[in-house]
Specification:
alpha+beta, disordered N terminus, five-stranded mixed sheet, 29% strand, 25 strands, 456 residues, single chain, six-stranded antiparallel sheet
Length: 456
């Protein structure tokens, strides 16, 4: 049976992962009231039995609990010990328990006044103590590891023993001040013993995982998540054969075969390749784990030319983050929670409407910020529709100018051709008329001059 001796806990009574488990599973209490100061020897035993498969969550909340009192006393605010659901024939009481049992006249006891030396101690059974020998109440409980009937040495593991989980030995023949209590023979400190029927271990099977070759970066926002087919309640993690932790006492969660290992458990590991072994009640699987310091985010494409009338902008990255922020300059223009931004499996999609609202014409230097890194993207924005409109307006203007030329002013000045045109042999009607007019004028001048000469 797992005794939880590897569990880490804070100093002082009660401030343990066991009390947090009890409050969550049994009392349905979460939040700021966790880690309250309980005497947690019984919670430790309950936890061990739960992990061994004796109880489901529902059974823990339904059946009886006891605070080192009768194993059938109903749960109340002061009642913390093993979650028993036993027939009384599985519980044996010593003469020391008579005073306490007399207070419970509602119950039937099958095994009373049993000599402490005759109790059927077996590994996994629970032994109850009254360390001061008064028998006023059952003030401590442990899990039997072994009992030597010849030497009378009882070996048991227990929680809240000096603020820790520890395995101890008690010689029933020895007279001593045990746990700082009065000097007496140890056999006179034992009040009772209880046990469960043997549980058949879960059937072993081949454990599979959705990813058996994992690359993790220390600057990642989160730890690891591995989905397995295990039906176990406990997942223990070993790195290169060294125990890292479990879902019971470490920053790990294991539910429905999904194991989540918190970043705090991984960040202290050395960079490089590791063998990570996941150990469940129903099997084992080995994962290849590589740890690196920094994740270098890449994007495809990194340089984009985009027209305002075009489709959405799609950028594929190698980020494993759940979030993305889009920064332009020093300001965040959008995030994955912004309407028009889609981010899934490393692919960022910006809708046409969003892109038009946050991007300017020309070059735009964006930074995509992920939880596991960032990458720069350059988007050059064109406006082809506006350019085509300008060209159409220019063409229309040229056509209008041509039409105006055809209907030009027909005044006297407009019909006089340029002399250069005449010199180049222009044979248009205007040129011919001009030549005839010039000849007529010359002839008129000659005739006028001759007339003046004849008069003289």
């Amino acid at each position: 049976m797992w005794t939880g001796k590897e569990l880490r806990m804070n100093n002082d009574t009660g401030n343990t992962e066991y009390t947090r488990w009890a409050q969550n599973v049994i009392m349905n209490r979460t939040g700021s009231d966790l880690y309250v100061d309980y005497d947690w020897c019984a919670i430790f035993v309950s936890w061990c039995m739960y992990q061994a498969g004796y109880y489901t969550d529902e059974q823990l909340k339904k059946y009886y609990y006891s605070y080192c009192a009768d194993p059938r006393i109903e749960y109340d605010a002061d009642s913390w010990i093993t979650a028993f659901c036993l027939e009384q024939e599985n519980v044996w009481y010593t003469p020391l328990a008579e005073k306490k049992l007399a207070a419970y006249d509602w119950n039937t006891y099958y095994h009373t006044n049993v000599d402490p030396y005759e109790l059927p101690y077996r590994p996994g059974g629970h032994v109850y103590f009254s360390f001061d020998g008064s028998g006023t109440y059952f003030d401590h409980v442990g899990i039997v590891i072994d009992y030597d009937s010849e030497t009378h040495v009882l070996t048991y593991t227990n929680g809240n023993s000096g603020g820790q989980v520890i395995t101890r030995q008690m010689n029933l023949d020895t007279e001593e001040e045990f746990y700082g209590q009065p000097f007496m023979q140890n056999s006179k400190r034992i009040m009772g013993y209880a046990e469960y029927d043997e549980i058949v271990p879960p059937e072993q099977k081949k454990i599979t995982a959705d990813n058996t070759d994992i690359l993790w970066y220390k600057d990642a926002a989160k730890g690891l998540r591995i989905q397995t087919n295990s039906d176990s309640k406990i997942a223990s993690v070993f790195i290169d054969e060294e125990y890292l932790g479990s879902n019971i006492e470490s920053n790990m969660i294991f539910n429905g075969g999904l194991l989540s290992i918190g970043k705090s458990e991984l960040v202290g590991l050395e960079t490089g390749a590791h063998e990570m072994k996941l150990v469940f009640d129903d099997g084992v699987i080995t994962i290849a784990l590589t740890i690196e310091e920094t994740n270098i985010i890449s994007a495809e494409p990194a340089d984009i030319t985009w027209d305002r009338t075009g489709d959405s902008i799609v950028i594929i990255t190698n980020s494993e983050s759940d979030t993305v922020g889009i920064r332009i300059g020093e300001s965040t223009a959008a995030t994955n929670s912004t309407e028009g931004v889609s981010f899934e499996n490393g692919t960022v999609t910006l809708s046409t409407e969003l892109a038009n609202s946050i991007l300017a014409d020309g070059n735009n230097n964006l930074t995509f910020v992920f939880a596991d890194g960032e990458v720069g993207i350059c988007i050059f924005v064109t406006n082809e529709q506006s350019d085509e409109s300008s060209e159409e307006q220019s063409d229309e203007s040229s056509e209008e100018t041509s039409e105006q030329s055809k209907t030009a002013d027909t005044s006297e000045s407009s019909i006089i051709p340029d002399t250069d045109t005449v010199k180049t042999g222009d044979t248009s009607s205007a040129a011919i008329i001009l030549v005839l007019l010039t000849l007529s004028l010359a002839s008129a001048l000659v005739l006028a001059k001759k007339r003046k000469t004849d008069e003289k």
